[in-house]
Design goal:
This protein is an alpha/beta fold and about 325 residues long. Helices cover about 40% and strands about 15% of the residues. Strands 7-6-5-8-9 form a 5-stranded parallel β-sheet. β1, α2 and β2 form a beta-alpha-beta unit. α1 packs across α5 and α6 runs parallel beside α7. It is globular. The chain binds phosphoric acid mono(formamide)ester and norvaline. The site of phosphoric acid mono(formamide)ester has 8 residues, from α2.
């Protein structure tokens, strides 16, 4: 499939990006297609002010480098403007309800991106606001990251349907969940290799299995890391201790002892497999991968694609 010239099956009909489970494969492919087109325009120096005069509020209750910078710069490249709202500084952090925040922001701006803990807060923001809401990471999902991941996978490998992506690490968290959804929606075989206590939520596994069945692809969840990685076209990992889980770090060090995407594990994948990581890859003593600087690593292409993928999301939702 030539994604750059993808022909939509139906008009894009989404109002929000809360989780990719709400989106059809066609809508995901339309987004990736627009992302590739916008990337080409940006590289060619061609202006593309699809959101001229529009504003995006960006609420953060957790830290961020990539998400914050890529949304802010992305809005500016689309001719609009973004406001960084730390929850510490706005009334939300002092107890103003999410619903009121949504109603107030809806009177000023054209879209809201939020990074926070509970998925239910993002859903509530969408329910009470009258403008598009984009999930910039919750404990449960990270859909913008997965759009960038699929874009990167496509750029390096071409056709995605029928390929295999293996994720190694904490699969009971945003990246494991969102990769299950995003891959299964597009017919990418997805395998999660995780210690026993870190399996994804069963509801999300069921969604992924149903998505995969419709696409003729597979879903595997295993504690045998080598089985997960076997023959994979992409091997992915994430931090063992996600934001908000810092108190569990000592326990997680124990639970993830011996888990590391190193050269030996990569050797079980396809010889031409790419290595992906949503980053940060190095954080204190936590070392999740030994191949981040190796020849198979495309982690900085992946980080860059956050910008292009999110510009496509904003253009589709906020135009
Ligand atoms: N991958 C990602 O979301 O990075 P940040 O936490 O830096 O935004
Ligand atoms: N699972 C990680 C992803 C960071 C981009 C976290 O939630 O901290």
């Amino acid at each position: 499939m030539d994604l750059m010239n993808y022909k939509p099956e139906k008009p894009f009909a989404q109002r929000h990006l809360l989780t990719l489970q709400d989106w059809s494969a066609d809508e995901i492919l339309q987004t990736l297609s627009l992302a590739l087109q916008l990337k080409a325009k940006q590289k060619a120096g061609e202006p593309h002010p699809l959101l001229a005069g529009k504003s995006l509020a960006m609420i953060f209750t957790k830290s961020s480098t990539r998400t914050r910078v890529s949304f802010e710069v992305g809005m500016q490249q689309l001719g609009g403007h973004a406001l960084f709202l730390s929850s510490k500084d706005i009334q939300l952090g002092r107890g103003e309800p999410i619903g009121d925040t949504a109603k107030v922001l809806s009177r000023y701006v054209d879209g809201i991106m939020i990074r926070t803990f509970e998925q239910s807060d993002v859903v509530e923001l969408a329910r009470y606001g009258s403008i598009p809401v984009i999930n910039g990471l919750t404990d449960r999902f990270h859909p913008c990251q997965v759009l960038a991941d699929l874009m990167t996978f496509y750029e390096h490998k071409g056709e995605l349907k029928g390929r295999k992506l293996a994720f190694i690490g904490d699969a009971a968290n945003n990246m494991g969940h969102s990769l299950l959804i995003g891959c299964s929606k597009l017919g990418v075989n997805v395998a999660l290799g995780c210690p026993k206590g870190y399996r994804p939520e069963s509801e999300i596994v069921e969604w992924a299995k149903a998505n995969a069945q419709a696409m003729g692809s597979d879903v595997l969840i295993t504690d045998k890391l080598e089985d997960a990685v076997a023959g994979a076209d992409a091997v992915y990992t994430d931090v063992w201790t996600s934001m908000g889980m810092e108190e569990e770090q000592a326990q997680r060090f124990k639970d993830f002892a011996g888990v590391c995407v190193d050269e030996a594990l990569m050797a079980k994948a396809d010889p031409k497999a790419i290595f992906l990581h949503c980053l940060p890859a190095h954080r204190g003593e936590e070392v999740t991968s030994g191949v981040i600087d190796g020849p198979q690593s495309v982690v900085f292409d992946q980080a860059e694609n956050r910008l292009h993928a999110q510009k496509a999301v904003m253009a589709l939702l906020m135009k």
